[in-house]
Amino acid sequence: MRIPRQAARVAVLDPVGSVFLLRYDNEEVGVHWAMPGGGMDPGETPLQAAERELREETGWADIVVDGTLLCLWEHDFTRAGVPVRQHEHIFLAQGPRRDPVGDLAASHAADKILRWRWWSPTELSGGAEALWPPQLPELLADVRKNGAPATPVDLGFVRNG
């Protein structure tokens, strides 16, 4: 039995279309790359959670998350020993290419974040590493070609691995 969990993430794109990703290690699904984000706190909207998680995981307080949704998706994983089915809202934002700021070691350790990096469109489409969601290269290629979607792409449930 999996516990339902609501979450939000932010795809931060730099001026040339690279995306900022964090490398997580999860006890159930293993090592993968995902955008900054995480579970919603009680009373938070998906947008509020996305903004908070972005600040907590990068130290960036100046990125404007205007509410533009890239996609919605659900997936299973284990969080702190609890099997969950997570429903995620993934927002789009623009920002400068830079390193995270501040002392993030405790936050990263708690979330099992191993490292971070900017991924160019070419690197992202290379398919060498596990991504959450797996359709991220195609979704961002469409954004670069056509702009942000008028309505978020609903990926539904995606089986990891």
TrEMBL record:
InterPro entries: Nudix_hydrolase (IPR020476), NUDIX_hydrolase-like_dom_sf (IPR015797), NUDIX_hydrolase_CS (IPR020084), NUDIX_hydrolase_dom (IPR000086)
GO molecular function terms listed in the Swiss-Prot or TrEMBL record: hydrolase activity
The keyword DNA damage belongs to this UniProt entry's keyword annotation: no
Nudix hydrolase domain location: 3-141
Alphabetic keyword roster: Hydrolase, Magnesium
PANTHER family documented for this protein: GDP-MANNOSE MANNOSYL HYDROLASE
Protein name per Swiss-Prot or TrEMBL: NUDIX domain-containing protein
Source organism per UniProt: Streptomyces boluensis
